[in-house]
């Protein structure tokens, strides 16, 4: 007899469903559903009490409507009411509705909990099961709070029915997952472990699931489960297939329970007790033996169940990784499956072999299957299986078979599914690098990658090949020759142009001796690709051209001609235009010696973990944020700043890179070119050098300044660079940091052994933007990094500082950029405080630094004539409008320096206004959101006395005072 | 752990959806669509496992499915489940449905959604396998039906049924 007879359905429900199914259009369906919803709503609201049957019918209709994807926003209360019914039918439908439709944060939970509580204590196993199901399905915190103590009691009570025990075990498991803190096993532990001995295999299965989860969290507490699990497993494995009656599935004894027990054992190392260990080994051998026996049934279910146990046994063997004979047997078994006609088995065999390949005992054995795996890659019809084959080839690769595997993967790449191409590219790139004996092979491989799957070659891959070529002298000539040849192809991928441009720019001279690749031919070849490329690639090519000018003086004229063309000098893209202008100028004015130094070959990159590897790791675990990811981020940015010619002004990634931080911080941000990679060892000192603002005055030369060039060259190249700021910058902590920044916008704000904070800021009228760079000076990651800006007391109303959120981690040696947006509401005195908090090696670090945001930052210079100046000066004659300060000079009284400071302060320096030429006069307007304050200043030095007199006149007394205080500290 | 159990037909019409982790209703519908898209484009004799769709955890999870006549049975599971074990579980589920409905077909699932849910609840609870023994499951379902019948007898008034 069928358990559900077809006649007893609800007619009303059947009619409704038929109606829906007959709907010709989505609109008709929605109309019908809305009609039904209205009907049910009125029935629920109606005065007449509905009988159980009707309630059930309506709830079923709602379930059906919900399944079709329509929101159900009523009926919950009716469902909850059904829970307290004594009728099974009503109670059951109520629970069904709740477990499908009620989520864990419903406000009905307390009512539901009440009903559950009654059912749990009802002693009616059916009701108890319904209640336990409901807890497990909803699994909310409130439920855990209400029942975490009750459920274990039901589980271990002697008089609990088996079916209830099963439910209680899984219910507890669910609560443990959702609210582990509330489920305290303590006293129950032993009794739960002993459930493994229960008569009822269903109970044992549920208990094994529970114990596995608990053992993962606290292995020590559940250690005793190992011997019981082994004993149980042994009994199942050695039983005749008929012994377990109902739990025999297609002639396999209790396959699910066996699988679960084998999973549980994977939570632990091999048993220490010799006897238990021997018994387990026996079990595993028996399972392996059974695989060789002829099948007891031809049905696929039989082999499925048998193999489910077998694969789990193999997993356990691999997990223990201690019995060489078992490992080899496991490997052979998987080898058989690799050629099995069942696709599922081939898939699982490839997957298991991947883990086996990492065991030292079986790595060699796995390698013997290489031909089969390669064959799978070529002939499998199923992309899931091919993907596993790629994984396995990657796992089994070592020095002995790398060339073969890489070649196979490369040839597969041409026909590979789009969905897995990028991953294959990464894997090939990693293997090629890891097992490269000679780097010519490596270079060939990467160029082939670009050729076959250029679109899937991420930046990391081509950065890496450049790092490797730069760092290895022996391969440079070959690389130049190979890219030159590759570029001959009429259509080549843009990534090839990038690699080609970079390598020829560096090492083109190595092949220039050959008349077939003379400098001019090289240049023409590169330039023939120029117009087809994107802006970043063009920028890179321009850098290659300037390098050519240095390498090959004979093509200087040709290149200058190209740079001079309107399409370059007037390019709409500001980066390209700037490069063209600056490179052209550089090539015209610099002597050969200087060019040679400035455009010297790139220094070797510091050795570091492959960024590609990091990227792959990230790709493999998209769901969870493991540390690799941050590692990866760092690596990316490193490359972004170093190997990347094409970084542009607005490109934030440069700013986040550690060593090349120099280029951005030092206002090299105007242009970051190929020279921008100082050797790591010099990083620190360079960092300070380029902080100095002076460079900003000469944007054309910036690429030079940040180049790997000695500082002397730099200053000789820029003869009028004053050295003052250098001194300032090298002693960052000598003064109040605030004072240091009054007349400039960039520099090192703070430095200790762990952290360096650099600033770069720009202000316009009453608005400002500050880039704060947090440099991790250690090799350890900073965790939980947080920086916030606090404006205390009155400052709150005067200044708005908004910090954009930044990453919570800063990798060792890396730099994090945070942007602060600043708005001056009204004039102010205090400075906002930057609070930094992070975890370094377990200890929490707290740093508070005043941010150098001073009132004068909102200065706009105003040019005016002598007449205007004195007229206004007189207008501002009220006593409170003028503030005067007479003070002793703290620094040498150099006229040029003083001028620079007044301009840096923000005022316009007015020449020829003061009758006394040794005096300085300035004017400007302080912009705040609420008002604008005109300011006039006069500084009178007295060289003999080494004194200054500073007079400020503004329309606001507070502004006069503040500006006078700020400026007085500067001389 | 089993994250979700989905049954849909060859056209992607959902016939049963049971999620053991909480998603918004919209996301649930999207997951069903995405899963259908992933599963339905696969050939008949390829393997029964594939990586889960992005919405339900990507490569962290596997979709294990079987295709019976007009219906796809899809279990979305994490790495703690045995692939073949789940495949067998699907088989047990279908065989149980077949016994309960006598030659189960898509229409049975449509018109008896509540029954299908009840049968499933005897097998899977909170995402964990509760019972795999078909006889045990059917005994439980039978007992429920008996109780239901005895109650229905008292309540049912089919004539006004609409």
Automatic annotation (TrEMBL), chain A:
Binding site for a 1,2-diacyl-sn-glycero-3-phospho-(1D-myo-inositol-3,4,5-trisphosphate): 11-12, 43, 53, 57-61
Keyword entries, A-Z: Cell membrane, Coated pit, Endocytosis, Membrane, Protein transport, Transport
Tree of life domain: Eukaryota
The keyword Repeat appears for this protein: no
Residue ranges with Polar residues bias: 644-660
Membrane topology, from the record: Peripheral membrane protein
Cross-referenced InterPro entries: Adaptor_Complx_Large_Subunit, AP2_complex_asu, ARM-like, ARM-type_fold, Clathrin/coatomer_adapt-like_N, Clathrin_a-adaptin_app_sub_C, Clathrin_a/b/g-adaptin_app_Ig, Clathrin_app_Ig-like_sf
Domain Clathrin adaptor alpha/beta/gamma-adaptin appendage Ig-like subdomain residue range list: 739-852
GO terms, biological process: clathrin-dependent endocytosis; intracellular protein transport
Annotated region (Disordered), positions in chain: 616-660
Residue spans of biased composition, Basic and acidic residues class: 627-637
MF (Gene Ontology): clathrin adaptor activity
Any single Gene Ontology cellular-component annotation: AP-2 adaptor complex
Main location group: membrane
Keyword Ribosomal protein listed: no
Localization of this protein: Cell membrane; Membrane, Coated pit
Assembly behavior: Adaptor protein complex 2 (AP-2) is a heterotetramer composed of two large adaptins (alpha-type subunit AP2A1 or AP2A2 and beta-type subunit AP2B1), a medium adaptin (mu-type subunit AP2M1) and a small adaptin (sigma-type subunit AP2S1).
Protein function: Component of the adaptor protein complex 2 (AP-2). Adaptor protein complexes function in protein transport via transport vesicles in different membrane traffic pathways. Adaptor protein complexes are vesicle coat components and appear to be involved in cargo selection and vesicle formation. AP-2 is involved in clathrin-dependent endocytosis in which cargo proteins are incorporated into vesicles surrounded by clathrin (clathrin-coated vesicles, CCVs) which are destined for fusion with the early endosome.
Family classification: Belongs to the adaptor complexes large subunit family.
Name assigned to this protein: AP-2 complex subunit alpha
Organism: Hucho hucho
Automatic annotation (TrEMBL), chain B:
Domain AP complex mu/sigma subunit: 1-147
Localization: Cytoplasmic vesicle membrane; Golgi apparatus
Entries under Pfam families matching the protein: Clat_adaptor_s
GO BP annotations, alphabetical order: Golgi to vacuole transport; intracellular protein transport
UniProt keyword terms in alphabetical order: Cytoplasmic vesicle, Golgi apparatus, Membrane, Protein transport, Transport
InterPro entries cross-referenced by the UniProt entry: AP_complex_ssu, AP_mu_sigma_su, APS3, Clathrin_sm-chain_CS, Longin-like_dom_sf
Protein's membrane topology: Peripheral membrane protein
Domain of life: Eukaryota
Main subcellular location: membrane
Entry GO CC: AP-3 adaptor complex; cytoplasmic vesicle membrane; Golgi apparatus
Function: Part of the AP-3 complex, an adaptor-related complex which is not clathrin-associated. The complex is associated with the Golgi region as well as more peripheral structures. It facilitates the budding of vesicles from the Golgi membrane and may be directly involved in trafficking to lysosomes. In concert with the BLOC-1 complex, AP-3 is required to target cargos into vesicles assembled at cell bodies for delivery into neurites and nerve terminals.
Assigned protein family: Belongs to the adaptor complexes small subunit family.
Protein name per its UniProtKB record: AP complex subunit sigma
